Amino acid sequence: RLVREFVAQNNTSQIKHVIQILSQEFALSQHPHSRKGGLIGLAACSIALGKDSGLYLKELIEPVLTCFNDADSRLRYYACEALYNIVKVARGSVLPHFNVLFDGLSKLAADPDPNVKSGSELLDRLLKDIVTESNQFDLVSFIPLLRERIYSNNQYARQFIISWILVLESVPDINLLDYLPEILDGLFQILGDNSKEIRKMCEVALGEFLKEIKKNPPSVKFAEMANILVIHCQASDDLIQLTAMCWMREFIQLAGRVMLPYSSGILTAVLPCLSYDDRKKNIKEVANVCNQSLMKLVIPEDDDVDEAKQPVPMPAESASEEALSKAEAVSGGESLPAWAIRGTSGCCHSLFLAALSFLCSSERIPVTLNLDGIVQVLDCHLHDTSIGMMTRIAVLKWLYHLYIKTPRKMFRHTDSLFPILLRTLSDESDEVILKDLEVLAEIASSPAGQTEGPGPSEGTEARPSQVELHVPVRGSQLSSSGNKGMECSPSTPTMNSYFYKFMINLLKRFSSERKLLETRGAFIIRQLCLLLNAENIFHSMADILLREEDLKFASTMVHTLNTILLTSSELFQLRNQLKDLKTQESRNLFCCLYRSWCHNPVTTVSLCFLTQNYKHAYDLIQKFGDLEVTVDFLTEVDKLVQLIECPIFTYLRLQLLDVKNNPYLIKALYGLLMLLPQSSAFQLLSHRLQCVPNPELMQTAEGPKPSAGSKRSVATSIDYTELLQHFEKVQSKHLEARHQRAGRGEQLERRVVL
């Protein structure tokens, strides 16, 4: 009644005096009953003031909010009731004081007393109604408080925060999406709450935000939220990880190349998910889409030598968006390294620059591919032996794709990547080895790897001048490599400085890991013959083995190469090239192979059979009498006899019909027969030779056929005498080496006896 009288008299000073007395002497009194009376009095003042209460809100609200912290729950309830009456009267006038009201309510939301909590919920609903119906809400000043309180660990406080976010998101005049980078990290943390209800509410809120992002991508600050998503894509909680991964998928597809600066962080989060089992199938599938979409963003223009920044294409727009309402968003920040990403705090948004947006702009925002960071992440994953097979395959696909799209920049990293790529050849998975070989083949064949002299390598010997490798002519220029797809075959093989280095290191790996040679050697070489030029591979390996100091390994390796040459369908063309020796290149290849094949006598004979050098094969077999005949030697002769019965040597068996012109072929086969003991191979070859017809029965009325010598006249440039001397020299070295090994074995046996 008193306040109404003062209002009627327009006596503001007396009104303020009454409010001051109620505040200082009652609401803030030490006596609890006085505080209750003061709170009731302040509420009564507000009711009496009516629409004029907005002039005194600061004086009315502050003492009530102070009582929110009172130890007496009844007092807190009275304070809540008083503030409800004040707000109900003032309505929209309380919005300038919204932050202090929100701060007080957020504390009451976690109050242990159910009555206080119930009262705060009534006040909360009233305040939400006021905000919803008003167009004067100051979102800018509210966001810092929301960002601070969103990191609360109290379940009720979290529920209170999420409810307000949902309300603000539903108001058309309030654009909360502009401030999403400020609260996104906190939302993902709330998503991991133990309460199912809170998790569901948070999931709904994030879903609504994602819908808004899809509707209006030009206004979204993708760059500012990229690393926030990277952090939560690595979360241990499945729901957080799946949600963050879904957001990442949409960001990559909507923002496009804006996401490129954050590629290393994205790959750090995505690659491990590709090896998840069926228990995390959903996360694995979304991660796979993220990986593929990110890979497509790398284009040939990223390989510009001058490191010029490339324009960012427009973000994708929804179907409902008009074509003229285009915009672009980008961050000038670089992606964080893995150690920084894992250690980022909740307020990680402060690490990024603000995104720039343009409407109807014809300009493009420059973006640079952070290739160094990407390669570092890929290299770390290859070195990590604990990662799954699908992750290793994805890493190798990335490396292959980068060598195709950005070969110049990638070759700066080749020396550091080369060792781990070679080690990956020992992987248990055939799929991993195939992808690894594709990468190595691209390195060995790309024109971007062309430098003067051999490629850099520790301990790599210089390439000898006498080795002439065939270089297929390449019609397309280097830039054409950018037109290749992610999964296309390597380019037409050419020789570069890394090819010979690759061959040397591959043979070294076979030498140090004999099990790899036994189990995967043939598989690796056959695949390389498909990916690269088979003639170059055999030519270079033969040349390297010619100077191999480990003679036992050289013999084993030659035997492996010979078996591949004679039996693999991938080498059909090379076999045909060697069969006739019609060209100078084929004769040079034969001589190169022959010199290395001399490490293994039986393979040398089989090479002569393949190239139809039957007289020389016979001469070699005559020398076998001077060699040490071991069980291994006889086993190889046995295998050669089996090979003669295979389709590969069909032409050789048919030549047995022409006895007159192929006498040395028959002599060579009889020579092999005489070497063999009475075994199944002996019986097989003996039966074959029994089928050789009588020369007199094979005579016809036709003129005489050309002699064997005239038939092979094209190969007269080959000095077979010199080749035979080389064979004897190599075999004497092998004999000496065997004696040395035997001597060391005897010495060791004596030591054991002693």
TrEMBL record:
Gene Ontology biological process terms from the UniProt entry: phosphatidylinositol biosynthetic process
Segments of this protein annotated with the region Disordered: 445-467
SUPFAM superfamilies with a match to the protein in the record: ARM repeat (SSF48371)
Keyword Endoplasmic reticulum applies: yes
Chain ranges of the Vacuolar protein 14 C-terminal Fig4-binding domain: 514-692
Keyword tags: Endoplasmic reticulum, Endosome, Membrane, Microsome, Repeat
Pfam families referenced in this protein's UniProt entry, alphabetically: Vac14_Fab1_bd (PF12755), Vac14_Fig4_bd (PF11916)
InterPro entries for the chain: ARM-like, ARM-type_fold, Vac14, VAC14_Fig4p-bd
An annotated GO cellular component: endosome membrane
Subcellular location: Endosome membrane; Microsome membrane
Assembly, per entry: Forms pentamers. Component of the PI(3,5)P2 regulatory complex/PAS complex, at least composed of PIKFYVE, FIG4 and VAC14. VAC14 nucleates the assembly of the complex and serves as a scaffold by pentamerizing into a star-shaped structure, which can bind a single copy each of PIKFYVE and FIG4 and coordinates their activities. Interacts with NOS1.
Entry similarity comment: Belongs to the VAC14 family.
Function as written in the Swiss-Prot or TrEMBL entry: Scaffold protein component of the PI(3,5)P2 regulatory complex which regulates both the synthesis and turnover of phosphatidylinositol 3,5-bisphosphate (PtdIns(3,5)P2). Pentamerizes into a star-shaped structure and nucleates the assembly of the complex. The pentamer binds a single copy each of PIKFYVE and FIG4 and coordinates both PIKfyve kinase activity and FIG4 phosphatase activity, being required to maintain normal levels of phosphatidylinositol 3-phosphate (PtdIns(3)P) and phosphatidylinositol 5-phosphate (PtdIns(5)P).
Name of the protein this chain belongs to: Protein VAC14 homolog
Species of origin: Nothoprocta pentlandii
Phylogenetic placement of the source organism: Eukaryota, Metazoa, Chordata, Craniata, Vertebrata
